[in-house]
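Here is the promised in-class demo. Please do not try to memorize the tokens; focus on the logic of going from shape to residues.
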């Protein structure tokens, strides 16, 4: 794994959260993207070299809706950049981590992504992501 690619923050209302974070960072999000397959609307901010993703559920069955129901708004996942997502998934599976999807999925921001269950990472949902070239 190379570095933290972004932090994902679950929000109830993306429009309102964009206003808050635009003020916080003193800049607008550089990207808004709906990932229908994941049931999320997202926005991305760049803060120096770092990225923050805000996520709002687009339907009540979305993982984000369930997360907010259980825990409220807040940090939802930590995403790590990897060179070869297939190799990392294989390595982590072999080491006993619970990978939430069998195959990488197309995520927001032109990435292939997969998730590691928080149960196997001390309560933190881990996202692996690889740039789609
Ligand atoms: Zn993410």
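The designed amino acids, position by position:
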């Amino acid at each position: 794994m190379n570095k933290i690619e972004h932090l994902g923050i679950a929000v109830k209302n993306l429009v309102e959260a964009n206003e808050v974070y635009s003020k916080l960072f003193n800049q607008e999000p550089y990207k808004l993207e709906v990932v229908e397959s994941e049931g999320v609307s997202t926005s991305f901010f760049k803060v120096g070299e770092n990225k923050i993703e805000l996520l709002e559920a687009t339907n009540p069955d979305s993982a984000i809706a369930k997360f907010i129901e259980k825990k409220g708004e807040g940090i939802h996942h930590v995403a790590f950049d990897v060179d070869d997502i297939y190799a990392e998934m294989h390595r982590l599976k072999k080491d006993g981590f619970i990978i939430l999807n069998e195959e990488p999925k197309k995520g927001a921001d032109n990435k292939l992504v997969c998730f590691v269950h928080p149960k196997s990472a001390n309560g933190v949902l881990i996202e692996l992501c690889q740039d789609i070239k």
